[in-house]
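Same chain as my last thread, 356 residues:
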Amino acid sequence: MPEKSACINVPKTDGQTTIVIANSLGIVNKKLQVKGDEQSVYIPIVRKPTDAELKEIKRQLPNVKVSTSTFMERPERKVSIVQALEGKLPPHLLVSLPRAMDVVGDIAIVEIPEELEAYKSTVGKAVLQMNKNLRTVLAKIGAVSGEYRVREFSMIAGEPKTFTLHKEHGCVYHVDLAKVYFSPRLSFEHNRVASLVKPDETVVDLFAGVGPFSVLIAKKQPHVEVYAVDANTAAFESLKKNVRVNRVEDRVFPILGDARQVVRERLAHVADRVIMNLPEKALEFVDVACQATALSGGAIHFYSFVKASESMQNLHRLLKESVEECGRKVERILESRFVRETAPYEWQAVIDAELR
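reply #2:
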């Protein structure tokens, strides 16, 4: 919030010199931000200089003035987790601390290496202390697995919960991390794909989860129909809620069921665009995407994993061969890129392809 404070006012050309002198006198208010305009710099101070101090300042800077102005608070400097835990962990373990974390709503998700297992509560508390907007810290246990791609967690600090409200690109999502798959690292992808959708398109989101693709598409594009399919009952219930709270009920139509069966029975050849974010089994569902795509053609967003020993060109080839086996053809590759690193020497990749 803005705060009124005494300040030193000098011509812009003398700003840096004045800051150095005021710092040496110990009078700079470091809780407030220095500000300036085209002519002057205003340096907030904790007290007015004494006559002797002001005389010394004016000896070097004759145009200095003492006045009052309004300043913004200086943002708190972020302390690294290594700095926060110095003295609380054996020094040799500081190099093992997680350098990154996923944040979903008010929950942080961290990876605790085996050597830090005995200190995981200490690490969790440090994360909360450094991030006042967080309420819970969860540690990953194992990899994403199972039919619904969920992961086990242990609660290492804060409130014992896995449910949260996550905000992304102006949308709100109800997410229970113990029951559904959700990755904040796909935020860019959600927005990228949503930005490609044109008016009056019909979109089929084959593995919709709690709806980060489907809901955002409908928010960005009011003239669209999105069929959001998922087999996970828990994800489906959250999806319905997210459709409602984001007020896109007239554009997003949640469907509970196996994507293959749903497309065969209800969504054959309706889609101008198909989203298939199931990288573990992407190639197994190319035939489903082909069946969902309109006979006149359409676009698919195909997500898969690529190892260091493979290449994006190899993934292009596999996709084209799989599409041709379904009696269709990849007219052109619209875009292909690595989305994120998912394991050492492994990446999630996306191919946007136009089918006919």
